[in-house]
Amino acid sequence: TLTCARYEARIIGTDAGEFPPIPTVEGGVTAKISAGVLKKAIRLVVFAAATEESRPVLTGVKLELENDQFTLAAADGFRLAVHKDKLEEPIAEATEAIIPARTLSELNRLLSDQTDPVELVLSPTRGQALFRLNNVEVVSQLIQGAFPNYAQLIPQSFTTRAELRVDECLRAARTAAVFARDSSGIVRLHVQDGPPGSLQVLARAEEVGENSAEMDADVEGGEAKIAFNAKYLMDVLGVIETDNVALEV
């Protein structure tokens, strides 16, 4: 019963013995990751994971551990995000697992107050993962299945490369998205070689009108045109922390 001044509430509880047992993860592969490094890595990839359950494996983020490096990769069938970074110390055995993106999103919120390295333990059967923080332990079931071979999806060469400011491109993409709502959210990018080089962000809808924004860019190669879903473009530009970003076509 909760009582305060003229208010009173009675809450019916459940026997504590009926609460599911808290799982423990012992043995297996253990790795330590800087809290700041892990938080950054999660932010840079988790947005690309699928939200629909039609392909469960894509609702997860693939984790790869090898020597003193770790890799996070997420994809939803339309886009792919990959980030590599350093472990606090090398591990003895290379391994991999698929962690639910929802788990990593929740973990990312908990990392705000974490200063010490995060200890990650993968169970010997690769069925569970444990993230040990200062005052919290997060245990998650892992997703079983074969994650796509993302390495073969990453282009190894380009004919045109444009380097531009992230804030300018994000601002242009947000404006173009308003005009692209009635045209399947499609915005077009037009790279023009220089000097000076430039990038145009264009969107058009019959019932709304059209929009064009141009910005300076350092361009290598010739002219190029490509179209993106506006949301996908804004998602990736929104997590990039550097001042500049490179577009390679």
Q: Going across the major beta sheet, what is the strand order?
A: 3-8-9-10
Helix residue percentage:
10-25%
User: DSSP strand (E) fraction?
Assistant: 35-45%
Q: From the 3D structure, determine the CATH topology of the largest domain.
A: DNA Polymerase III, Chain A, domain 2
Q: Topology as H/E string?
A: EEEHEEEEHEEEEHEEEEEHE
Organism: marine metagenome
Domain DNA polymerase III beta sliding clamp central: 33-149
Family: Belongs to the beta sliding clamp family.
Subcellular location: Cytoplasm
Could you walk me through the main structural features you see in this protein, from its secondary elements to its overall organization?
The chain is of the alpha+beta class. The protein has two domains: 24-153, DNA Polymerase III, subunit A, domain 2 (DNA Polymerase III, Chain A, domain 2), CATH 3.10.150; 160-248, DNA Polymerase III, subunit A, domain 2 (DNA Polymerase III, Chain A, domain 2, Roll), CATH 3.10.150.10. The protein contains four helices and 17 strands. The protein has helices at residues 35-45, 101-110, 166-180, 230-239; strands spanning 2-4, 7-9, 29-33, 60-66, 69-75, 80-86, 95-100, 118-122, 128-132, 137-141, 160-165, 186-192, 198-205, 209-216, 218-221, 224-229, 244-248. The strands form five sheets. Strands 3-8-9-10 form a four-stranded antiparallel beta sheet. β13 and β14 (209-216) form a beta hairpin. α1 packs across α2 (101-110). The chain is globular. The model has no long low-confidence stretch (mean pLDDT 92).
